[in-house]
Amino acid sequence: MTQTPTSPDTEPLADCVLCGEPTEHPASTRGATYCPVCEWQEAQRTACSG
After folding, report:
1. Helix segments in 1-50, DSSP class H
2. pLDDT digits (tens, 9 = 90+) for 16-44
3. Higher model confidence: residue 10 or residue 29?
4. For residue 25, which of 6, 9, 13, 50 sits 20 to 30 Å off, Cα-Cα?
5. For the purposes of burial, counting CB atoms within 10 Å of the CB of 23, is it exposed (0-12), middle (13-18) or buried (19 or more)?
6. Alpha-carbon torsion 28, 21, 17, 35, what sign?
7. Residues whose CB falls within 8 Å of the CB of residue 11, separated by 6 or more in sequence, listed in order
8. Residue-level pLDDT at 49
9. CA nearest 14: which of 22, 5, 3, 2?
10. How far apart are CA 1 and CA 49, in angstroms?
């Protein structure tokens, strides 16, 4: 079992603006942040909106 070291100065992750789940982006990211599921769904909506 391998554990990844955690650092006390690691920045927390931003919450998804749609569902509130943690995202893969740091909290300092500007603009709307989405979790992987909502990001995929948003991409599907914009791709089909023509």
Report:
1. 36-48
2. 999 999 999 999 999 999 999 999 999 99
3. 29
4. 50
5. buried
6. positive
7. 26, 27, 28
8. 66
9. 22
10. 45
